[in-house]
Amino acid sequence: MERQSELFPDRKLPWVQVQLSQYVLGLGGAQTEGIFRVPGDIDEVNALKLQVDQWRIPENLSDPNVPASLMKLWYRELEEPLIPMDFYKQCVSNCDDPVAAITVVQSLPELNRLVLCYFINFLQVFAQPSNVAVTKMDVNNLAMVMAPNCLRCQSDDPRIIFENTRKEMAFLRMLIVHLDTSFIEGVV
């Protein structure tokens, strides 16, 4: 965001997040079976990563799985997860309570809250029944493939990791279904 402020001082959201989201949708990702589950061609993903790292907009994209794969990688490789570690316990503790889950989101630092709400708003597009009918990616599948990109369990204990994986997915599913992200429309 520091580097971005020099190039795009008026942007509130990460340029790469908005660009990749728009590519996925623009290339018909909301009507692509297995979107986010089917990986994009690794060479194309790496080529796109190089372009995006240089703040360049590629023109030759045709497969929505390529920007979708890079988007997942970008979220996963953030130095601090999208939902900061300090909030992890609250997320897994409130994974079955929509009001409590939304309260956790509202208590996030401003940038994290905006980026997360944009991300959830994006996933809500894919959760619409008309898209699910084609993509086969319902809210459970979306939560399964995306939760590891937002939340990071700090434990090394396989039992805790296994148990928390279910809670991480439940938390993300709760947000996709219940979080009102309408305010994020038009925020970039």
UniProtKB/TrEMBL annotation:
GO BP term, example: signal transduction
PROSITE patterns reported for this sequence: RHOGAP
All copies of domain Rho-GAP, residue ranges: 1-183
GO terms of molecular function: GTPase activator activity
Alphabetical list of SMART domains matching this protein: RhoGAP
One Gene Ontology cellular component annotation held by this UniProt entry: cytoplasm
CDD domains reported in the protein's UniProt record: RhoGAP_KIAA1688 (cd04389)
UniProt superkingdom: Eukaryota
PANTHER family reported in the protein's UniProt record: FI04035P, RHO GTPASE-ACTIVATING PROTEIN 39
The protein's name in its UniProt record: Rho-GAP domain-containing protein
